[in-house]
């Protein structure tokens, strides 16, 4: 089969011994060399008894997203095999312009007819010289490694640089009632990556495994541009009335006190945020099994006064048009979920942030997605923190706004790490990076004074640009900040205005670990974020994404050591159109943010 644009070709092979395999080419260049397919128990003596090919070309409108319309076009083939004992296995393949996806399906449904998958035998043999952007856990740093001597299995997505100049990424989609699968080097064949399932899975037929996905691109920017592929591999929205699902910007309340919460709400109103969030400690020590998430009992290590009046705060927030999110640790969630959710809806809570969830196993993967479904029943939005990485489930249950699964500002990574993330972690969906602003030693902020090793390693404009570069429908701003840290710097009006969801997205240019430029549209306005790594660089921002024939006022926010503002940011305005090219000088670990307003 070929992709709709004819650039990608997938071939399926059936050997005389009944083994099956495949290869993938892009513009006649090999991306995946001939590789094996199958599952333990379904890998040989397979006989093709039926095949069907078709195509699809539709569009759908997400509740929110990186664009208001998502195009879904592919050619597909379904191949039915019969194995020993007349057992049947189907291989479903989709060939998109953006890459290839395949999964295994077990048809038939009889009482007690269970299937156990011990091992996924699908492998991906890459051309010699391929390099991988490797990390072994969801909140890890990345290293560029050859396909040999990895310290462990690799987290998904796994971004690959081929020697022929192409780029690819291995990942999985629709992991809802299955276990997580990492990617591990195959010890029996060089340049080959296999599937490392977390554990065996047992289920009743009919049943489909998650999708194995090979994204393909000529440039790294195309990988991020094409990340709707994972959404397309999930089921449509299952929530009938989605009016209550409202993405927005959120600030963490740091004091866990009534007075501090009111100040945070006032700041949210002033700075055009939509939510405040109470993090760990509001119902006691989160790791104590006796802590009860159905009542307020502030952890004395966070606020010894225990003077947080949550009903008063929720009422005060609602009066000012601000919603409230509550953090709940996995310990309390597992024990109290079914009683907490109707209670939180009664309280008027907008959403819940799941903390330290168990990930990987079949049991906890299924539990987690069922918990998101239950939250939807009680009109609660969700943010999942720690090691969970998305596989497209937000299409089906868009109350799951975002998730962590990223080394973000809780660990204060350097700028080079931040320029790797768009081409790796963000290929699988939104990420809650927890953007900060004030915590550098020179600003003498509270955190910088008390935790000198735990301060920002980037410039102000690098952080501000992340609000555009990094997609998260629930976008945390001012993560380590208190309202009093702000001195109403002029550039904050960019944070005030920037949306969290978009009508269109263009990944303008970028190189993994070096820099990236992303343009996003909301209505007629465009926003651009550009960041560099630990090195300074001069870049050119091509404005061809703007509507032809229209003029725009570009308000440019940039790092400026000569600025009189303590954050060392300056602002300038120029008039531009789609033919304009803007020069930007990015300081080391810096960035630039631009708002384009269409002129009448």
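^ structure tokens above, recovered residues below v
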């Amino acid at each position: 089969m070929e992709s709709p644009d004819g650039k990608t070709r997938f071939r399926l092979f059936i050997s005389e011994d009944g083994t099956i395999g495949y290869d993938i080419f892009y513009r006649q260049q090999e991306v995946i060399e001939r590789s094996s397919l199958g599952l333990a128990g379904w890998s040989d003596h397979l006989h093709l008894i039926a095949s069907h090919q078709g195509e699809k070309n539709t569009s759908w409108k997400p509740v929110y997203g990186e664009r208001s319309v998502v195009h879904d076009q592919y050619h597909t083939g379904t191949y039915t095999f019969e194995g020993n004992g007349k057992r049947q296995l189907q291989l479903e393949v989709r060939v998109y312009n953006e890459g290839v996806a395949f999964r295994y399906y077990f048809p038939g449904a009889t009482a007690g007819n269970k299937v156990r998958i011990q091992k996924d035998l699908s492998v991906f043999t890459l051309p010699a010289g391929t390099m991988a952007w490797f990390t072994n856990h969801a909140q890890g740093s990345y290293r560029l490694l050859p396909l040999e001597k990895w310290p462990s299995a690799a987290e998904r997505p796994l971004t690959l640089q081929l020697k022929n100049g192409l780029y690819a990424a291995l990942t999985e989609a629709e992991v809802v009632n299955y276990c997580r699968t990492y990617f591990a080097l195959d010890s029996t064949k060089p340049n080959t990556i296999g599937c490392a399932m977390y554990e065996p899975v047992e289920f009743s037929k009919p049943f489909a495994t998650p999708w194995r996905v090979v994204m393909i691109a000529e440039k790294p920017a195309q990988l991020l541009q094409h990340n709707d592929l994972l959404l397309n591999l999930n089921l449509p929205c299952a929530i009938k009335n989605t009016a209550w699902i409202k993405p927005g910007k959120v600030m963490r309340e740091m004091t866990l006190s009534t007075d501090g919460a009111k100040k945070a709400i006032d700041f949210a109103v002033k700075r055009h945020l939509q939510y405040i969030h109470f993090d760990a400690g509001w119902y006691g020590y989160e790791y104590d099994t006796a802590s009860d998430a159905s009542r307020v009992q502030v952890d004395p290590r966070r606020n010894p006064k225990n003077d947080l009046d949550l009903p008063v705060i929720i009422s005060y927030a609602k009066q000012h048009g601000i919603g409230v999110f509550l953090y709940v640790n996995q310990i309390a969630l597992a024990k109290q979920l079914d009683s907490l959710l109707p209670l939180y809806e009664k309280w008027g809570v907008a959403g819940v942030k799941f903390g330290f969830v168990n990930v990987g196993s079949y049991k906890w993967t299924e539990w987690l997605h069922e918990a998101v479904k239950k939250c939807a029943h009680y009109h609660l939005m969700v943010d999942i923190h720690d090691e969970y990485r998305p596989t497209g489930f937000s299409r089906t249950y868009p109350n799951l706004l975002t998730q962590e699964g990223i080394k973000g500002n809780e660990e204060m990574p350097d700028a080079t790490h931040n320029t790797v993330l768009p081409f790796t972690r963000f290929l699988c969906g939104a990420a809650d990076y927890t953007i900060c602003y004030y915590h550098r030693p020179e600003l003498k902020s509270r955190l910088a004074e008390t935790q000198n090793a735990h301060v920002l390693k980037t410039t102000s404009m690098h952080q501000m640009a992340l609000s555009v570069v990094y997609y998260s429908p629930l976008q945390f701003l001012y993560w380590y900040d208190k309202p009093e840290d702000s001195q109403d710097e002029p550039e904050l009006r960019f944070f005030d205005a920037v949306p969290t969801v978009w009508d269109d997205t263009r990944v303008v240019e970028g190189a993994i670990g070096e820099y990236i430029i992303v343009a996003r549209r909301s209505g007629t306005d465009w926003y651009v974020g550009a960041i560099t790594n630990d090195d300074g660089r001069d870049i050119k921002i091509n404005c061809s994404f703007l509507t032809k024939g229209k003029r725009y006022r570009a308000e440019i926010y940039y790092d400026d050591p000569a600025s009189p503002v303590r954050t060392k940011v300056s602002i300038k305005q120029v008039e531009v159109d789609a033919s304009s090219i803007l020069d930007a000088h990015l300081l080391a670990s810096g960035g630039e943010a631009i708002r384009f307003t269409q002129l009448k």
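The chain is about 15% helix and 35% strand.
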